Structure formats: structure tokens, C-alpha cells
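Support request, priority: normal
Reporter: lab tech (M.K.)
Component: structure prediction queue

Hi team, I submitted a job for Elongation of very long chain fatty acids protein from Oryctes borbonicus yesterday, and the status page still shows it as pending. I've pasted the exact input below so you can check whether something in the sequence is tripping the parser. The sequence length should be 346 residues. Please let me know if I need to resubmit or if it's stuck on your end.
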Amino acid sequence: MALVIKAVEDVNRYLNKYQDHRTANWFLMTSPFYTLGICISYVIIVKYIGPKLMENRKPFHLKNILILYNFLQVIFSTWLFYRIASGGWLTGKYNWRCQPVDYSDDPETLKMVAISWWYYFSKFTEFFDTLFFVLRKKNDHITTLHVIHHGVMPMSVWFGVKFTPGGHSTFFGFLNTFVHIVMYTYYMLSAFGPEMQRYLWWKKYLTTLQMAQFVGIMVHAFQLLFIDCNYPRAFVWWIGMHAVMFFFLFKEFYTQAYNNSRRRKPPSTAVNGKHANSANGNAVNGYVYQNGHTKHHTQQNGYHRPHTVTNSGDSNGVLKQNSTSASDYYMNGHIPTEIEQMVKSQ
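Reply from support: The job had stalled in the queue. We restarted it manually and it finished. Here are the results:
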């Protein structure tokens, strides 16, 4: 234990030699291990402890809480975007090609330093995205992409606030907060339920916007490798490689969620002399399977016997649509009219 404590102190001492004095004593800025501990705890809770505690419990219905939470995230992201934009990027104060860090105590400069810390803080508030998935037993939404994205970001931004608050690196936050305005608006609308799905046709374009964001960050960061700019090369690589990593993670999600779904066609199978269709699954022996999770026993041996089975990812015994549908992302699914009519006709 003494060796661990000494190693922690040595790391803190080394980092503090090069820190920005303006943020040195700010909340969670004195050591990276506070942020690291929170991030590790987040991963353990959402991947292991949370699902285990919810295993034998019914999912919570959080419709109103989700609407309020996402509305507050829209307001918070809008405020952050405005402050970063007015602090330099949309006022002509910042150079789009090269913007060194201003380490002075100028009041206008300190505003950008402060908003850099608030952007860092916002990454912790986004942990609630995953916690709500856990409470609602939407474990299929707690993907590798989701956990990496939320778990890594606080630690990544901490280094920026510690050493380079303001300047070139704030372009990341400038683009990211704008994307989050759009993203949390989508989540808020989807939280109202299936009746909003017709207005959420633009979900796939949201993922495209997220990927475009990372391309913009890559180009903006890596251009400093080819021009003379008084900005730390280490942070050029740090920001640029984060953008590369997230771009390919989101691209993989896009491919799985949209391109692959186009290739899947609902099969048609004769069931006990009748013709039955199923959505995203197979119809076998009177059962309608959907995504391999839910089945509905329609008619067998001359009588009607409803039977619904769900796994831990479903709730309320309701048929579940493809997980990429808009309303299903944040709300419990409901039986689509066309599927309900098809089942009744069997």
C-alpha cells in the first residue's frame, strides 16, 4: 500500500510541475486519480453491479424523468455551446488554423478557461444516460461503444483543463456541444413514446452528424502537424487520435444499425397450413419471434392461447421492435398496429 501511495504522489507531483496555475486548485483538478476513480466506478456499476441488482426486479418507468433530464441536457449543452462560441470561435478572436493557449489572467480569457472546466463537468452528467438504461433494464443499449464513449471522455477532457484550457483544443467542445444539442433533443422527443416515432425519421442522420463531428475534429487537430503553431504536439495527437477512435466506433455502429438492417427481410413461413409473417425474426409452429427475444403463441390445436415471454432486456411482456427504432431507444415498445392485426388474423 505504501508503494501505491508513493506512486500516486509521484504522478501528482510530476503533473503539477506543468499544470496551468489558473485551474490548479479547482474541483477535481488537483489529481487525475479522482476522475479516473469515478470513471472506473461508472464502468463497474453500469456493466456489473447495476444489471445484477436489477436482475430480479421489474424495470422502472421513467418517462417524465427522462423528458426532464433530456430537456435539462439540451439547455446545458446550449449554454456551453454559446459560451464557447462567444468566447472565441464565432467572434473572430480565435484563429481556425492555429490558436495557441493564452495563459494570461485577462478576464475574457478566463471566461474560456472557466467554460472548459464546465465542459469537463458535463461529461459526468452524461453518466445518467447509462444509469437510466440500467434502471429500465435496457441492457442491450449498454454497448461497448456507449460505455467507452462515456467512460473515457471525462479523463480525456481532464488533461485539457489541467494543461491547456482554452485555445485550439476547445474546438472539440465547440463541435461536441452543438451535436449534443441535437442529440438530446432527439432523446427528449423519443422519450414521449411511440406516438413521436413518425417525427424521428432523422435518427440515422444524427449518427452521420456525430461521425462528421469527429472528422472535423481530426482535420482541425492534425493540421497543426504541418504548420508552425505554438501549441503542444502531445495534445494534437491526444485530441486527434481520440477523434479517430470515436469515428470508427460510431461508423461500426452505423453499419450494424442501418446498413445491415437493409439486408434483412422479414421471412414468410407457412404455419399449420396458414401463412404467417414475422418482423425481424421467424414464425415457427405458431410462434412469432421478434429479434429472438419475444414470442407470441397465436393458435394451436384449434384454440387460441396467448403466451408472451420476455428476457431481461424487454419489459411489460410487450413485443419489442428492432432496437434501432427511435421510440424504442428510450421508451418501452408497443405492438405496431400492422403486427397486431397480423397476429389477430392467425
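Confidence is low (pLDDT under 50) at residues 268-346. DSSP finds eleven helices and eight strands in the chain. Let us know if anything else looks off. Ticket resolved.
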